[in-house]
Amino acid sequence: NAGVMQNPRHLVRRRGQEARLRCSPMKGHSHVYWYRQLPEEGLKFMVYLQKENIIDESGMPKERFSAEFPKEGPSILRIQQVVRGDSAAYFCASSPQQGLEDTEAFFGQGTRLTVV
Amino acid sequence: QQQVKQSPQSLIVQKGGISIINCAYENTAFDYFPWYQQFPGKGPALLIAIRPDVSEKKEGRFTISFNKSAKQFSLHIMDSQPGDSATYFCAASKENYQLIWGAGTKLIIKP
User: Fold this and answer.
1) Do A42 and B95 count as a contact with CB atoms less than 8 A apart?
2) Average pLDDT estimate for A19-33
């Protein structure tokens, strides 16, 4: 089992460009969670998705950010018109059922986004 | 109300010593308190977790102590080893996915 795969590992974007971050959950996991980590801070919840459904997006900024988890393929976190403040590490986690309390829930290695 | 405050920010411990990291919370609705370990360039990995119905949980060299009345919990690493050098995060949740994280403690174990 390859674990939660995130790509790219590092992404550099100029201000105003779009950033697309991909997350492939572990095999058999249908629940995906995205978190953002600013330097020297803990992770902050952004969004929880199941296949083709957004369950909870209460942590997502209202503008420029969107997430999807299609029936086929990875979950995508999309940031439009990036600004310097979007620079952060974005982590994805997956679990076989709802909840990160599940011991089978795992985090990916993250995508480090740098906006220049 | 939603914050989890973690201390210290960094910690240096001699090999074989005890590492202690503390966290405090305010929201009494929190019912799950995990600790995560994160190595540089890696995602966080669940280390140990506790629920408020117990005051202590031990797994190998790692122990969580939980004080419900004080709304505090701590991680103790016994016989600390250089391989334990990492950043440790406490967290809390009432929704079982919407973890509220502390700011992290960078732990260095000196050989």
Assistant:
1) no
2) 95
How many Å apart are CA A65 and CA A6, to the nearest integer?
Answer: 18
Q: Report A:9-28 residues touching B (Cβ under 8 A).
A: none
Determine contact, residues A101/A93, Cβ cutoff 8 Å: no
Looking at residue B45, its pLDDT comes to 92
Who among A4, A98, A107 is closest to B97 (CB)? A98
Q: What's chain B's average pLDDT?
A: 94
Spatial distance between the Cα atoms of B48 and B62, rounded to a whole number of angstroms: 8
Alpha helices in chain B (DSSP H): none
Q: Sign of the C-alpha dihedral, residues B67, B69, A101, A66?
A: negative
Task: For chain B, say whether A66 makes contact (Cβ under 8 Å).
Answer: no
The whole-angstrom separation of Cα B92 and Cα A100 is 11
